[in-house]
Amino acid sequence: MISKSMLKKLAKQHGTPLFVVDHAQLRRNLAEFKRWLPRVQPYYAVKANSDPEIVRTLYRAGASFDVASWPEFELVHENIKDLPAKERQDYIWDKIIYANPIKANDTLRKLNPYKPLVTYDNLEEIGKIAKHAPQAGLVLRLKVPNTGAMVELSSKFGCDPGQAVSLIEAAHARGLTVEGLSFHVGSQTTNFQNYAQALQLAAGVLKEARSRGFTKMIQLDIGGGFPAPYDDNVRPIRELGRLLNAEIPRLFPKDVAILAEPGRFLVATAATLVAEVIGKADRDGKRCYYINDGVYHTFSGVICDHMKYPVRAFKKGATQLCAVFGPTCDALDTISLAEELPELELGEFVYAPNIGAYSHASSTSFNGFPPAKVLHVNQDA
Ligand SMILES: Cc1ncc(COP(=O)(O)O)c(C=O)c1O
Q: I need a labelling partner for 336 at 20 to 30 A (CA). Which of 82, 140, 186, 214 fits?
């Protein structure tokens, strides 16, 4: 994390709320991912934080991309638009996956000329893709256990593994080609058994599909879920790497390319928020601090991402149990009802580390308060 003295200096210089993105940390996170998962090609899940500067840094550092909407596709495409046509097309095919299993017809029509790889998980989608994006390659998303994940996704996406082969057959019957399989074990997965079980399920489907002649299935996308080290209880990526590096070669032939869609792991620890105390009151015997950022803004993950972000003081000293609220007039704008903080004065800065994922990305302008100002540091490699 950027030093506390530097954060304070930047907040004085640029004002608050200030969302400080450390690009050196982004590059370190990508390097760490590649170090422990050398066979896995990381496709940054742009939705975690779609700031164009973040996308650019990860592009320059050699990441591939998971996009899940047309604007996200355009954002990545911005980095490759000046490449020669063949190189650009190769990049799209090799390094971008459109990983939203449900796509509007209009989106499919826009994607079609780019011949992208897209995920699907149901029959209706096959019909839509065949009609509006026949040039796309397909990846079938499987439903896998999301047990214990902070954000569970399996109730919204993924086909039952028992239906997988018939969905592969159905896609081919419409003239499409299924290139591989994907799954997502749930975001911030600390139960690594989810990955082990998902790999087993995917290996069974792949074997069956190949035995029925679908030999072009050469991709396995192991999704996101890689946990960010929010606290000491989160087991390190090194341990997950050990499991995956043993299971993947055991279960999948060498010709299967392994890709992943890490979002949170790459970006969570790369940003810190600095905010300011703008109000202070005692209510029902509890000290309440009001700061100039809240759950409609950078702390949106409290609502949308099931996250709890600690709010920290820069100064040391005896603490008391406090409530911390955001600046809007809505009571939902509650960051925490149980934060240990020292006595803070109006105008004092506080900070929230590891707040880069699913935070600024879902910030609104509710109640007239604009999203926090973004400051990029260490952008040059
Ligand atoms: C399809 C897909 N891929 C990747 C991600 C990123 O997951 P994470 O941030 O847990 O790595 C998500 C998150 O919702 C997703 O839906």
A: 186
Rounded to the nearest angstrom, the distance between the alpha carbon of 213 and the centre of ligand 1 is 31
Smallest CA-to-CA distance from 170 within 138, 200, 201 is with 138
CATH of the domain at 169: 3.20.20.10
**Considering only CA atoms, which residue is closest to atom 14 of ligand 1?**
187
Q: Whose CA is nearest to atom 12 of ligand 1?
A: 224
- Identify the pLDDT of residue 239: 97
Q: What is the pTM (predicted TM-score) of this model?
A: 0.97
Per the structure, the complete domain to which residue 170 belongs is given by 24-267
Atom of ligand 1 nearest to the CA of 261: 4
Does residue 381 register a pLDDT over 80? no
Answer yes or no: is pLDDT of 216 > 90. Answer: no
- Which of 232, 267, 302 is the endpoint of a domain? 267
Ligand 1 atom nearest to 99, measured from its CA: 1
**Confidence band of 155 (pLDDT split at 50, 70, 90):** confident
**Domain count along the chain:** 2
Q: CB of 187 closer than 6 A to ligand 1?
A: yes
Residue 66 Cβ inside 6 Å of ligand 1? The answer reads yes
Q: Is residue 215 domain-shared with residue 278, that is, in the same domain?
A: no
| CA neighbor of 297 nearest in space, from 375, 373, 365, 353 | 365
Catalytic residue positions, numbered? 329
Percent of the chain with pLDDT over 70: 100
Query: CA neighbours within 13 Å on the CB side: how many for 373?
Result: 12
Q: Cα dist. 356→89, 154, 155, 253, 298 in Å?
A: 31, 24, 26, 36, 9
Is pLDDT of 153 > 80? yes
Q: Is 246 exposed, middle or buried (0-12, 13-18, 19+ CB in 10 A)?
A: exposed
**pLDDT cut 90: percent of the chain above it:** 96
| Rounded distance from Cα 186 to ligand 1 centre (Å) | 8
Q: Is 45 in the pocket of ligand 1 (CB under 6 A)?
A: yes
Q: Are 22 and 353 in contact (CB under 8 A)?
A: no
Same domain, 352 and 246: no
Number of other residues whose CB lies within 10 A of the CB of residue 87: 11
Q: What pLDDT score does 139 carry?
A: 98
Residue 264 Cα: closest atom of ligand 1? 9
Residue range 174-192: average pLDDT? 96
Query: Does ligand 1 have an atom closer than 6 angstroms to the CB of 116?
Result: no
Average pLDDT for residues 19-31, to the nearest whole number? 98
Decide: 48 in ligand 1 pocket, CB within 6 A.
yes
